[in-house]
What we know:
The protein is mainly alpha-helical. It has a domain at about 30-75. It has one helix at about 30-75. The longest helix is centred in the last third of the chain and has 44 residues, at about 30-75.
Amino acid sequence: MLKHDVTTESSADNSDAPPGDEDQSKVISSDEETxxxxxxxxxxxxKIHKATVNAxxxxxxxxxxxxxxxxxxxL
Length: 75
């Protein structure tokens, strides 16, 4: 879905091209593929952000509990 299958021909056809270069006429890239990749990246980042917010909130609640217990025992 994200990457189209590309058949590669023998290296004799591309002997002038450096290794790793692909013939651009064989690579199929579309707006749908770009949009799908972008949505996937945003989704992954949102999951990370949500997990980070939950961790920070838990940490704040813990620290607030520690501060209140210290204040209670110092009185």
